[in-house]
Amino acid sequence: MNAFYLVNLLVYAAVDAMACLGLSQQFGIAGVTNFGFIIFQAAGGYTAAVLAMPSDSANGGFQRYIGGWHLPFPIPWLGAAVVGGVLALPFTFLVGRRLRGDFAAVGLLVTAVLVNLLVTNYVPLFNGDAGISVIPLPLQGKLNAQTQGYEWAFTAVALVLCVGVYLFVRRITESPYGRSLRAMRDNDAVADSLGKNLLSLRTGVLVIGGAIAGLSGGILVSYITTWSPAAWGYAETVVLFAAVIIGGAGNHRGAVLGAILVPVGFEEVTRFIPSSNNLPPNLIPSLEWVAIGLLIVVFLWLRPQGILPERKRVIALPPQPLPAGDRTAPASPGESAPADPVTRSVERTPPATAVQAAGPGAGQVMLQACDLVRDFGGVRAVDGVSLSVRRGTLTGLIGPNGAGKSTLLAMLAGTLPASSGTISYLGQDITGMPAFRRARIGLVRTFQLASEFKRLTVLENLLSAVPGHRGDSLRGAVRGRRYWSGDEQAAIDRAGIILDRFGLRDVANRYAGDLSGGQRRLVEIMRALMAEPSMLLLDEPMAGVHPNLARRIGDELVALCRDGMTILMVEHELAIMDEFCDPVIVMAEGAVLAEGTMRELRARSEVVEAYLVG
Amino acid sequence: MSLFLASVGFGLVTASVLAIASVGFTLQFGVTDVLNLAYGAVMIAGAFITYVLNHAGLSVWIGLPVAVVACSAGSVLLNSAVYTPFQRRGASPITLVIVSLGITLIIEFGVQALAGGTSVSYAMSQGPTLRAGGLILTAVQLAVIGVSLLVMGGVHVLLRYSKLGKAMRATAANATLARNCGIRTGRVITSTWALTGAMCGLAGVVFAIDSGSFDATSTDVFLVLILAAVFLGGPGQAYGAMLGATVIGIATEVSATFIPADYKYVVAFVVLLLMLGVRPAGLLGARA
Q: What CATH architecture does domain A339-612 belong to?
């Protein structure tokens, strides 16, 4: 094994590992399937080339390309990273919107093919099909690039940058921002309803991944001193995806492992296959591709989590506070409410709009809807609904199946846009406000079907909902653990108290997807509470839950309302309505039929006919 | 003007090939909810089967039915052995797309391993050139258009008037409900893949005929045209695919009179990205 071989191996390993780390963060952590990834590496490569080369007329005139400013190292590499990052911005129109994941991925794949086609055919840009060559090596003028010392120095720099990228990517992933990315990956609609700005999150990972890919392209181009469209077809993206999937999507060490096994591994394996004149020349490369295809399918079937699966993040909870009384059974909600200042004070901090605790503010209208209508094609699911919900009330919303209750809730929460009508919250018109902003002003919803973040632990589920966390932004994540650890510890303490209240401390560090149905329901409610809401929209919170547990949840909700929370709850269990809700709104066929206490409603014939009978 | 008309003529041929391919692709998606990106690979495999027979002395028109049958069987196998098991496990749509990319690599480069990397072409005569009102087409090109029209007619009759067609439409609309109504959705799905697989094989051979020379990766760009036609009309909508194919086919050829021919596919790309960004349900799809 000679030195040249080793240098070659290490440089390719560094470049491929870097690219895989960028892709792993987009695909494995954030759930953004960027089939156009290779374009960013290509852009970085071309940028580094045209920044480092002299202008094309001065360069012998046999290649045509834009740029050519003959800039010294390290500007070409910096430029490569910047261009890679900036190039990501136009792509956000495909991933930011609520487009099916596979459709968006296909759009990105097609874009990669298109860009390759354009660069191949438009020669003045980057010399077309022939590509750019004789790219100057870094510091070529100052140092002798032919020596072994130079080669090793280059290799060392590439490896150092690779390690730097690894640490950077890990810092982002292991922050609350990274937790939000994972939540978005697991269930983007729910993340949206908890205050996460999906467009901004996806743009962030596209830009970071783009910059990393661009840097990797710059390094590669400086090493092989040539770059052409053949080097970056969409097949190369498939190779990187194979690497990330095999190594372990969602695990950064897995990404590095995948880079070593797949792109580097395949290159090396071919060296050891004895060459034979009997075989057609392209047989081995073709079979390599077949092997990669097979590996992708086999791994996705047998071991989709990859060789190194995503680690579970285990977070230590502070010990249970001693004077809580009986510690063998979880504190019964009714008893603990008045006397426990710790619980009360951390349960909900009033939003900036300064809603008072129960007392002077009680009776204030929190949420008002006027003539809400929602059409689905030819079907009118909600037909001119008007309602107002007052502070401190636990309002029930009942009606037969198909009455439009969930649709109405979705419109109030912002998950569905209204076809017409207005909604206002604390006097502010929120009709056009997207769901994540409504969550940030205190209007939070839960979902009917299982919507926990499956690959986050219960504790992480709760922590993901915390608003205003210093670490929950890209800038905060980059600034590192010391910047946001204070907020994180406060959030963990709050989560611990809520977990104790609902008796789920034992499962805090289990994956939320592994819990029983009733437990997952509780996680959903606890998570909504962590978001510091001033009004909750609950969509069948008791569905499929044991009656005793349902009663406990009901008691809990009543206690919250006594403390100033407002709740609108869709439910089917009339016993729950009887016991806990006042007022109750009845819907049928898209419209409000009646409103009042359950006793009043039972007395009205049209309500009985529409719903209460049978 | 004559250049324009001639390009319209070429556009009709491209549209014909594209129509056969796109209708097959969109029906696969409609009934199974899988974007089968390996469709292009199956096409080129069919083209090569006919090539091997052609190389051995048989006429292309005899090799064509063989390719059709082979691709039909292959597609059924692909769905039942690969896509269905993944779907039963609850794999996400994006996982299925990645799987289909893996299958594409296996098939395309498997073909390349067997047949070599150089371009090949069929040994066949194009027949007499016919001119009519500015359109200039060979007999073979006219035959391609004719075959395409036959297939479109057949699909129309199938979907509208046959029991299988109605069952396909029901399964595509709501598979669970269709099952509860007594429709044997498993059989419907298998039949759909058999039919669309046949169309895929047919599309592959006429693609090869129309292209002149081709190699194992020739359908990579063509797949983008298929996707453009499918998303223009609306994924899952057979008539949408026919409309989309006509528009894309003619538009790409006509654009070659205005912009350099190398860029003619850019039209298709732009259409596809626009549709995905603005109206993913397509022109004929229901607005969400």
A: 3-Layer(aba) Sandwich (3.40)
